[in-house]
Amino acid sequence: MKMAEKLGDHNTGMLESYISDTMRRNRVYGLSISIIKEGNLIYSRGFGLRSLSPPLPATPDTLYGIGSCTKIFTALSVLKLVERSKVNLHDNIAEYVKRLRNDPKRDSITIHQLLTHTSGYPDLGVAMGTLGQLLGEQDVWSPLGSVDDLVTLINDAKNERVSSDGNVFMYWNEGYALLGKVIEEASGENYSDFVRKNFLLPLDMKRSTFDSSELESDNDVMVGYYSGRDDRKMPMKFPFHPLGYADGGLISSASELSHLVSMLLNEGVYKGKRIIKKELLKKALSPHIEVRLTVEKKKRTFYGYGIFIDNDFFGFQKFGHGGNVAVSSAYFGLIPELGIGVALASNSDFGAQVVADYALSLSMGKDPEKLMYVSFQRKADALVGRYETFKGSTKMQISMKGPNLFMEIVNAGQTNLVPIMIDDDKIFLILGPNKVNLDVRVNSPSDVVIRFERFLFHKIGKV
User: Fold this and answer.
1) pLDDT value for 229
2) How confident is the model at residue 4 (pLDDT cuts 50, 70, 90)?
3) SS3 letters for the chain?
4) What is the mean pLDDT of the segment spanning 347-368?
5) How does pLDDT run across 372-393, given as a tens digit for each residue?
6) 32, 332 contact by CB (below 8 A)
7) Which of 127, 243, 268, 408 has the most CB atoms at less than 10 Å from its CB?
8) Using one digit for the tens of pLDDT, what is the confidence trace for 396-439?
């Protein structure tokens, strides 16, 4: 893919500054990103280090684990088998996974339900269980070495099923692992071979792989960094597991993942070659079930086949999917109406979508600072720090713990930890059933005054 019209100096500066700040805040060592517009590459760069020892820079071609971004390849593989009349979307998967016990008239699980996460089954811990085995941090042990082990677990969990009607969205990694078995049974091929032959090679994703030996022999590959329970970043090999291939096992680069994005933008065609029928791709990109993640009335999110659909991203539909396997993370996103898309990956555990959405906003000519989580982070950054009242009689600290803000007040030897909520320009403490207003005055990053009940806190330094 040739580099065409650039992102522009101003937008490039904004994007690179935001990426640098985000990597610093989240302690991300290496990150790679590619942006395309109307089939052309308009920006591509690596940030930071793909390896600390020896220190090696990240590049657009660095290979990372892309986690659940793999699901779109699994979904497209199923549709390719539909195209060849090998499967029907309403088939009971027990036809392909023989040991799965269900009553076809009462509680069958269909291929469509697995593709849309509407089987009604809750998370059974397979994804975290297999990762836990490989990372050495598993609290609850389950024998998970094969699809047979997975089927045994699902059979035992029949009473956990919330609904069999396909009307409840519950993100289910186990379902995509089952789809990998469906693909093998229907095609007569190994799952990874089928994906490689039908999608990776036609999309010029020749270095993308499910094979650990290829990962170890490549010259431009990440070292994953895992945040253990003591929150220290530790180098860790990519956690390959046979049960994780179809739901999150692909290794790829930002540059090669952008080829997938280009094909999706071009209605199933890549470099003049049709990869998947237009009508089948349209089915994958259709909103089959609403995903109720927030209480926002205007914004609604749906799930297609292996892809999320946001109904209002600056007034446009946005399609995308993220992935996270503890030692790496990734995201791809696209705005078909505008012909723009982005792919990125990193060698740390963090929410890659925030960077992708920032990049998409700039590519659209929109102000990324208006994105909800960017606005939240800016306000949170201003609040985080150490505070005290007059003469230091009462001390207070505001800090981020994961994606959330907390206030910790120390008064007369007692410590209270209270969550903070930011709603537009209003800031609240959550105290039991009550939201208590915080009166905040930000004069500068170092001069912040907060009035709370009888206290007047002055910022005195960083956390």
Assistant:
1) 62
2) very low
3) CCECCCCCHHHHHHHHHHHHHHHHHHCCCEEEEEEEECCEEEEEEEEEEEECCCCEECCCCCEEECHHHHHHHHHHHHHHHHHCCCCCCCCEHHHCCCCCCCCCCCCCCEHHHHHHCCCCCCCCCHHHHHHHHHHCCCCCCCCCCCHHHHHHHHHHCHHHCCCCCCCCCCCCHHHHHHHHHHHHHHHCCCHHHHHHHHHHCCCCCCCCECCHHHHHHCCCECCEEEECCCCCEEEECCCCCHHHHHHHCCEECHHHHHHHHHHHHCCCEECCEECCCHHHHHHHCCCCEEECCCCCCCCCEEECCCCEEEEEECCEEEEEEEEECCCCEEEEEEEHHHCEEEEEEECCCCCCHHHHHHHHHHHHCCCHHHCHHHHHHHHHHHHCEEEECHHHCCEEEEEEECCEEEEEEEECCEEEEEEEEEECCEEEEEECCEEEECEEEEEECCEEEEEECCEEEEEEECC
4) 94
5) 889 999 899 999 999 999 999 8
6) no
7) 127
8) 999 988 788 999 988 766 778 899 999 878 899 998 888 999 99
Q: What is the dihedral of CA 431, 432, 435, 440, to 10 degrees?
A: 10
pLDDT band of 139, cuts 50, 70, 90: low
The CA-CA-CA angle for residues 272, 273, 279, to 5°, reads: 105
Model pLDDT for residues 432-459, shown as the tens digit of each residue: 888 999 999 999 888 999 998 889 999 9
**Longest distance between any two alpha carbons in the chain, whole Å:** 77
> What is the number of other CB atoms lying within 10 angstroms of the CB of residue 114?
25
